[in-house]
Amino acid sequence: MSSPINHPQTDVVVCGLGHMGGPIAAELTTAGYQVVGIEKGPFWQYTTDWRQDQKDDEWAIAVERKFDHPLYISTFTIRNNMNQFALPVRRYTKNIQYHALGHGVGGVGVHYGGSLGRFSPWSYQPVTMTKAKYGDAGYSTILSNVKGGTPDIEDWPVTYDDMVPYYNSWEKAIGVVGDQQTGQDPFIPNARFPMPPHPPTPYATIFKNAVQSLGYTPFSTVSGLISGGYVNQYGIGRNGCVYCGWCGGLCNYPCEVGAKTSSHVTTIPAAIATGKFDMRLESYVFRIDTDSSGKATGVRYYDSLGNVHVQPAKVVFNGLWGYNLIRAMLLSGIGVPYDPVAHTGSLGRGLTEGYYPATSSASVQLNVGANAYVAGNAAGGGYNIMDLNEVNPNFSHADDLTFMGGVNLGFGTYIGSGPNTFTTHLPSRTNFGSTWKAGLKDEKIPTKITATLSGTGPNLPLLENYADLDPHYTDIYGDPSTRVTLDWDANTYRVSNYLVNKTTKITDILGKMGDPTTIKKNIIPELAQHVDWWGHHMRGGARTGANQATSVFNKWMQCWTSENIFAAGEICDTFGDNLTAGTHVAGAMAYLAADGIKKYLQSPGALV
Amino acid sequence: MVLFLPISRREFIKIGAAGAIGFGVASAIEIPILENSINNDNTKISQLQSQITQSQGFLTLNPTEQVIVEALAEAIIPTDSTGPGAKEAGVVYFIDHMLAGNYGKGGNYFLRGPFVTPQSGSVTVMGAVYPSTTKTPITYSAGTITPRLQAGTSYQYAFNPREFWRRGLTFLENYCTAAKGGKFETLSSATQTTVLQEMFDNSATNTALQTAFEGPNAAEFFNEIHDMVTAGFWSDPLYGGNQGMVGWELLAFNANYWGDDIGLGAVKLMVASTPTRLPPKSLGQLQKEGGGI
Ligand SMILES: Cc1cc2nc3c(=O)[nH]c(=O)nc-3n(C[C@H](O)[C@H](O)[C@H](O)COP(=O)(O)OP(=O)(O)OC[C@H]3O[C@@H](n4cnc5c(N)ncnc54)[C@H](O)[C@@H]3O)c2cc1C
Ligand code: SF4
After folding, report:
1. Nearest residue in A to B285, CA atom
2. Nearest ligand, measured from the Cα of B267
3. Best mutation site among B271, B273, B278 for testing chain A: the one with the most A CBs within 10 Å?
4. I need a labelling partner for A247 at 20 to 30 A (CA). Which of A62, A455, A552, B66 fits?
5. 3-class DSSP state of B123
6. Cα separation of A354 and A573, whole Å?
7. Is A508 helix (H, G, I), strand (E, B) or coil?
8. Which residues does a 6 A CB cutoff place in the pocket of ligand 1?
């Protein structure tokens, strides 16, 4: 191999140009700094790569994964506990695009679901606010009931109020859709969105009326798929959603009109427009270099021909997403790796999966029909309530202190999906032959639809769950893969059981929506399944926190042990409560990190 | 009758641990053993050929495989009073074309060792327990959920999907011959259904099945067959299946047609309480029209 190619020093090097890397690139270049962006994938152009007459293709998207990270470059391994041998993920699960990793400018954002929403004040201070409601003793009872491991829960180093300005910047940049007058929810103050909601579906209106009659406060589903033409604070304009039908569901698609918000259509174009952004595509970051004091000197990456490049920088931003974000730091010897036996160290600690196993639910038949194929999952057109959640001061589950949190209950968004991904079409003991086939006829344009409501609560960080480097498997360049050790706690089962089974909270709503005699409950047993790979919402593992012993980043997203390394992403969440999908929260975190980097460049040193 | 010998689990793990990638079993296929069946198969294929148009034909499935795959596809999506099935859709061509290309090669797969073969029980590997990949169905008040076998880490083979099919089809024929007295395509429709269900169940006590299948196991192969047959019925006709969009027709799936040219916005169509059924449009049609955004 020839000797490394050395580049001149830049102010900031941004590793990974997804939802997180985009805001950093836009904010720092518009503030006058020189930024280099390094991204292992290409820059897809929706105007050419995703034209409707090519992109609306379920085989390519749901199975061949044309726009996902190729696993032969790198993968990760997973096991449920530290006594097991971790197996590598060798292929994406067919027809379930939640199993997906980003590749290219925009990252996973180019084909995520676009379901958004702010976290609540409770989400940022779960310990303090749960104690305030149920008392220290009540909180101890909750912790002692946690099943599946030892809870490792902390408050964020920031409060909701601290985050409001950053939420505002993020929402303006990507054009978040939601109620403009009333905001996201009365319990989540000052959330006013730049774009109006998508038109409600008729079944969403049924839900809205039902919950209103019970005294709850519905709000329009918050969405990241813009509802009309929009120009953001950087002057970047985009088209509104055309309800193409090839958008979301079990499998998610890139958008042919650029309505699906991600950095490739929102913030990266803004950075490019400044002339201060140098973008290196198909370039794979493998090390962050540090000096003897632990400060980063820059990064090293391979270009697509295998040449090694050295890019010195004053600040390194790690926007490599989840496992890759942790891995880059472990490989570079940055931070203190978590020791799962001694429970010391912070890098890899507190890992949770933001997705959840099946939860209990109840359903009712409605008196309306729908064509599930038209419109598409624009993650909008529905309504939600936060009333069955800790954020509501009047919500209390003091009668059942076996779980933490509550639910963001939503209903009525557009459905839309390709035929291969409907669950009634997936392999099973009965899903084949003539009887099954007859049942499929016109099944997605019923004249009466069934409404299902379910509750999913937070998955709690446990001392047993963590990420480290795998001893057996490597990426294509020979560096160890990330190893994930993770299993469910019982929390989310219990939240759903409480709402569906132990109380009538869910069935009361269903009774107002449709014919009460058709209500059916589906009660799922606790911990019937182990974590398999979901992977679209990895939280914790590289947490931001007030305590240096248990977190990797301080409140400015500045690394405790390397003052010029910053990061953002769901993997940095101190606590993730599943109230919303999470990118909204991480996006605000990226704007906070951008502020931190500006402060640092003006006056280098520890910001806390 | 064994067409090729899978290396034993123990050996496989050992080889895998040493980092070997080659699996080298396909060459063990004995042509003479197949002779009789090929003659039978040829008759069936000549029947099939009557349907073959200029652009249809086989790229990778051999004549024996063509017949089994056709029979499997028809058992899963039969042609019946509900309408056309896998046969009319040309599902067998879809599967053939996909196995011949990137999909069959496992183009995006991570295929580096060590390799640990799936087990029905757990096994110790390098001092650590390897969890079972057989997932037990979860029974709850509304029915039973069977966790999907493909999820996450189930594919732990050193070979690509084309080999997966070569092996799976052979195992299937061996099982049917041993346990049902004939190859899959010769069995009655009721027996075919039973075989598919037995594969799905992959019961540890079904010794004949366990003996016949070893990497892929029966349930994994069932899932793969089902996924590919349905994909051949419901993916865009460009890929060789879903000919005449018969698969979409069954589901009333409108595919790439939003109904805008009949004066109804998509939202309106969606929300009507008597939903409108729209005729589908394929990507090929759309491209010809120079349409799309
Ligand atoms: C199918 C799916 C649906 C989702 N739906 C929703 C939803 O509805 N709502 C929601 O809030 N969230 C959703 N998410 C999650 C959301 O998409 C992610 O949280 C978000 O996109 C992550 O942004 P990121 O910038 O952290 O990572 P990414 O978008 O993954 O960006 C990281 C970038 O870094 C690059 N990269 C990685 N490693 C290297 C390397 N070594 N060198 C160079 N570049 C590298 C990658 O190619 C990628 O472009 C979904 C995720 C998936 C998979
Ligand atoms: S439904 Fe809307 S946002 Fe989604 S891909 Fe289609 S046009 Fe884009």
Report:
1. A53
2. 2
3. B271
4. A455
5. strand
6. 10
7. helix
8. A 15-21, 38-41, 97-98, 100, 102-104, 107-109, 112-116, 252, 284-285, 319-321, 324, 379, 536-537, 569-570, 581-584, 586
**What beta strand segments (E) does A222-307 contain?**
230-231, 237-238, 277-280, 284-290, 296-302
pLDDT at A71 over 80: yes
Q: For A514, what's the count of Cα atoms within 13 Å in the CB-facing half-sphere? A: 24
Longest alpha-carbon distance in chain A: 75
A177: left (phi over 0), alpha (psi -120 to 50) or beta: beta
The residues with which A375 forms a beta bridge, in sequence order, are A244
Prediction pTM value: 0.91
Secondary structure of A96-162 in the HEC alphabet? CCCCCCCCCCCHHHHHCCCECCCCCHHHHCHHHHHHHHHHHHHHHHHHHHCCCCCECCCCCCCCHHH
Residue of A52, A53, A522 to mutate for B, most B C-beta atoms under 10 A: A53
Q: Is A450 helix (H, G, I), strand (E, B) or coil?
A: strand
- Inform me whether the pLDDT recorded for A604 exceeds 70: yes
Q: Looking at the domain A5-602, which fold is it?
A: FAD/NAD(P)-binding domain (3.50.50)
Query: Which candidate, A188, A187, A191, A178, places its Cα nearest to that of A219?
Result: A178
Cβ A244 under 6 angstroms from ligand 2: yes
A521:B153 CB<8 A:
no
- What residues contact A294, with CB distance under 8 A and at least 6 apart? A334, A561, A562, A563
B131 contact residues in A (CB cutoff 8 A): 79-80, 84, 530
Tokens for B204? 């540890």
pLDDT at B4: 33
Residue A528 touches partner B, C-beta closer than 8 Å: yes
Residues of chain A neighbouring B220 (CB-CB closer than 8 A): none
Whether A61 is in the pocket of ligand 2, judged by its Cβ within 6 Å, is no
Q: How far away, in angstroms, is A364 Cα from ligand 1 center?
A: 35
- Distance between CA atoms of residues B292 and A285, nearest Å: 37
Domain ranges across chain B: 9-108+159-253, 112-151
The average pLDDT across A131-152 equals 95
Give the percent of chain A with pLDDT over 70.
96
Would you call A45 an interface residue with chain B, using a CB distance cutoff of 8 Å?
no
Domain boundary assignment for chain A: 5-602
A211 phi and psi angles, rounded to 5 deg: -70, -35
Average of per-residue pLDDT values in chain A: 92
Q: pLDDT by residue (tens digit) across B144-179?
A: 555 554 456 778 888 999 999 999 999 999 999 999
pLDDT (tens digit per residue) in B95-150: 999 999 999 999 999 999 888 765 555 566 666 665 555 555 556 565 555 555 44
Residues of A numbered 79-98 whose beta carbons fall under 8 angstroms of chain B's beta carbons: which are they?
79-80, 83-85, 87-96
**Is the CB of B29 inside 8 Å of chain A's CB atoms?**
no
Give the tens place of pLDDT for each residue, B252-283: 888 887 766 665 666 666 666 667 788 888 99
C-alpha closest to that of A56 among B255, B231, B272: B255
Contacts for A453 with CB less than 8 Å, ≥ 6 apart: A361, A362, A363, A409, A411, A500, A506, A509, A510
Q: What share of chain A is helix, strand, coil (3-state, %, to 5)?
A: 25, 20, 55
pLDDT of amino acid B3: 33
* Residue corresponding to tokens 């503030």: A31
Residue with the two structure tokens 């000797």: A3
The b/e string for B215-247 (b: 16+ C-beta within 10 A; e otherwise) is bbbbbbbbbbbbbbbbbbbbbbbebbbbbebbb
Residue A138, Cβ density class (10 Å: 0-12 exposed, 13-18 middle, ≥19 buried): middle
